């Protein structure tokens, strides 16, 4: 979550008149994240998240996201459905952006996960994958393996080396390796593709919400596990790996869905791909984020450290 588009209280108040949600009490921009503009809204009836869709969300993809969230909600998954207005419409326009009002879910995002919290998250990811078995709508991954080479080029060799000396050559070598060995034959499904701790809401050791599905897409299912592993099992700077959190996360996933032998064998490669993907998108945002945007830029080297770990420790996923 973030704020790129600034919306006044008066504009939010007028926007809310389209819904049966009461009148505005307060609105606060949310700085975390890098994708869309988000506000925490409190009305006389309840609390909501107001989202304005920014540069990386294609308006043509919004029906996919609505259908996916509706499907998961009907399957009793802990997801925040979009709120329909008085005409039944879920997507509106606000300040020149497509926008929606989303149900607020209780809970907090943890910063240093415990093994119990990681197990609960792995279990929730597996339950979500199970619930999506019957979901037939597909969406290509806009940040798939096939896009990473162009993303690296868009960052620029010198700019990558400004982030970390030698980074451009490291990225080029890793891209060649992933192109040669990427496991395209593994089972695919709709995945979250961005299940970082700040996209999971928890109360104690219980998952109360899975949020921010705007990278959700059809891709290798085990890649979702690799993304979540890279996001949850390291210190924020990526320099420390927590093996107990790793084991708990994978055990939790096994409780509700599970990994085939082929999936588990591919996880080291998928994890390298996941870390390269987030290294590159963070690098691009680090280079290109507007100076006046209310958004917290995220350090690309945190995922450079994770990538180096997975390169050096291919047995980390062994049972």
Question: Helix count?
Answer: 10
Q: Give the overall silhouette.
A: globular
Q: H/E order of the elements? A: HEEEHEEHHHHEEEEHHHH
Largest sheet: 5 strands, antiparallel
Write down the Rg.
19 Å
Task: Provide a concise account of the structure shown.
The protein has 319 residues and is α+β, with helices and mostly antiparallel strands. It has helices spanning 9-16, 62-74, 115-131, 148-155, 157-163, 167-181, 221-232, 243-256, 261-288, 301-312, and strands at residues 24-29, 37-43, 47-52, 92-94, 97-103, 188-191, 200-203, 206-210, 217-220.
Summary tags:
five-stranded antiparallel β-sheet, alpha+beta, 10 helices
Describe this structure in words.
- By secondary structure, the chain is of the alpha+beta class.
- 42% of the residues lie in helices and 14% in strands.
- The protein is built from 10 helices and 9 strands.
- It has helices at residues 9-16, 62-74, 115-131, 148-155, 157-163, 167-181, 221-232, 243-256, 261-288, 301-312, and strands spanning 24-29, 37-43, 47-52, 92-94, 97-103, 188-191, 200-203, 206-210, 217-220.
- A 5-stranded antiparallel sheet has the order 1-2-3-5-4, with helices on one face. Strands 6-9 form a two-stranded antiparallel ribbon.
- Strand 1 (24-29) and strand 2 form a beta hairpin.
- Helix 3 packs antiparallel against helix 7 and helix 7 (221-232) packs across helix 9 (261-288).
- The longest helix has 28 residues, at 261-288.
- The chain is globular and about 55 Å long.
- 39% of the residues are buried.
């Amino acid at each position: 979550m973030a704020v790129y588009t600034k919306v006044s209280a008066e504009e939010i108040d007028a926007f809310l008149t389209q819904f049966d949600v009461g009148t505005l009490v307060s609105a606060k921009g949310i700085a975390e994240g890098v994708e869309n503009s988000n506000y925490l809204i409190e009305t006389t009836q309840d609390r909501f998240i107001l989202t304005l869709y920014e540069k990386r969300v294609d308006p043509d993809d919004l029906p996919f996201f609505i259908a996916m969230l509706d499907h998961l909600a009907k399957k009793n998954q802990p997801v925040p459905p979009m709120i329909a207005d008085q005409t039944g419409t879920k997507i509106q326009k606000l300040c020149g952006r497509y926008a929606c009002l989303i149900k607020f879910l209780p809970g907090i995002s943890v910063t240093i996960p415990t093994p119990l919290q990681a197990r609960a998250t792995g279990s929730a990811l597996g339950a979500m994958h199970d619930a999506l078995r019957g979901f037939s709508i597909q969406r290509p991954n806009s940040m798939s393996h096939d896009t990473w080479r162009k993303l690296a080029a868009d960052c620029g060799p010198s700019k990558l080396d400004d982030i970390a000396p030698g980074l451009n050559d490291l990225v080029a070598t890793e891209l060649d390796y992933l192109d040669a060995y990427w496991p395209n034959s593994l089972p695919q499904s709709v995945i979250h593709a961005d299940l970082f701790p700040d996209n999971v809401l928890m109360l104690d050791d219980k998952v109360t919400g899975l949020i921010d599905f705007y990278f959700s897409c059809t891709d290798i299912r085990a890649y979702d596990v690799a993304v979540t592993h890279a996001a949850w099992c390291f210190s924020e700077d990526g320099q420390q790996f927590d093996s107990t959190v790793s084991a708990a996360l994978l055990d939790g996933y096994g409780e509700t869905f599970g990994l085939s032998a082929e999936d588990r064998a591919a996880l080291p490669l998928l994890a390298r791909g996941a870390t390269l993907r987030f290294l590159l998108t963070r690098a691009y945002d680090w280079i290109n984020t507007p100076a006046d945007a209310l958004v917290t830029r995220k350090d690309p080297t945190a995922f450079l450290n994770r990538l180096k770990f997975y390169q050096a420790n291919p047995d980390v996923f062994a049972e």
